[in-house]
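Letters spell out the chain; backbone shape is given numerically. Take this protein:
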Amino acid sequence: MKRRNFIKSLGLMGSSVLIPSVLGERGLISSASAANISARQLLNARAGIADTVGFTKPAVLPQIINVFLYGGPSELAGNLTNIEDINTNSQNPYPANLFPGNANHTQNGFWLTAGGEVMERMLEKNRLSVYRTINRIDDNSRAHRPSIFSNLTGMIGEDDMRPGVATNIAAVLAANSAVSENAIFPFVTFEGESVVFNQGSDLPLGLRPISLNQNLENPYQRPLGAAGDASSTLDTLASSAAANKAVRFQQVVDAFTKRNEIDDFIGDLDDKINNAALVLNNPDFVDGSDIASEQDALITYPNNGFGPRLEKAVNLVINNPDTIFVSLGNEGLGGWDDHNSALDDNKYPSRMRNLMRSLEVAGQHLEAAGKGNVVINVYGDFGRNVNLNNSLGWDHGNCQNLYTVSANPNAAGVTGAIAGREMGKLVGETVRKGQANENRQFTHPTDNSYQCEPFAISASIYKYFGVENPELLTGGYAPIDETNPENLKV
């Protein structure tokens, strides 16, 4: 199958444009337009995908929580290894306590008060891996929109009509009958519209992304009217109206059925979450083989804006194996476009602290629940320059960190670990590049260091889901593999 036709097949199998309010007017219009796709076209699309994408279903499907930091975070919280050279050449000086041997520089070169202490703990417990050389070279745009589109669709360039990474996963799984079309919440966004679910034309109703809030409220639920609950009346009316014209009104009937299913599901899920919380927050819940200390057994997320949202996402994947991809975004943290006053403690350092404290608890939670098949990926548009500009901030750069959080796959009781995945790794070495006392200074992988394009993140996710030739979906970029320094592009 020609590449252009294959991409069209993915788009055909993809979801309609995601609208934050599922029942909003535009959402209904998008869903209605999807009806124009014929059954024959869908069958052809599925056949084309199944014929082109090599696929072996994993014994346990992974569950991905994608945390995308819009604005492009500086890498310095996770990589101060070049800070002395950076400071010597910077237009403005950095605080001395960031230098090696000082209080704010951890043993692995993390920024202690920007989440570094937490990163050290997670590394030690094999719940975190940090990749320091996710380095954009090809088609090196440092503009927000094309960087967001390319990173979340997994391919070079900005294309509004190209399916996102999660949409491609849905298409491949659907084409191979690897996920039930009756699954509830297989693809979820907590951030409304997201490029990772970027469009196409149609998917079975059960495989379309659904927008949830941190209270896990049913997006299909209607609010009560002034005269009381009209839900049952409307259900009866809809069923009656559709009785003699089932084909014409089938989408209406399906929508009402789905709403009732989700009502029941959310009620059961809330019960499971509440019951689990009673166990996980019990100080007596300490298993020396799984959890190192009583403190580790206290699964309490920080109330910092982001923590409660991450908690809901983690609870969802723990208690609902059907949920295989969650887009979380960075709501509750703030933006990462730190062009000025970046070093102020209530700005970049505070955001990184809040992020890492929340991720630490998530890693504890996943390990306590024995969930080795859940991976939390954290990355953004791009990295930033390391020169501290005259506004005491950082402008757009190349090299960024990927933070991957999961349960320790070697811990007793952890099941369903993803084959080949390791935790507790610190990958990549960097040097500073650029002219002294000029703004365009940045870190770059050393000559002997592993590096990869950000598209390798998407390729790795595809590989987790059983795609045997993920390079087909990324335009040639291979999954992350630091044992093969030459795998920038196959």
About this structure: Residues 3-219+235-474 form one domain. Residues 15-36, 285-292 have pLDDT under 50 and may be disordered. The CA atoms of residues 108 and 120 lie 7 Å apart. DSSP finds 14 helices and ten strands in the chain.
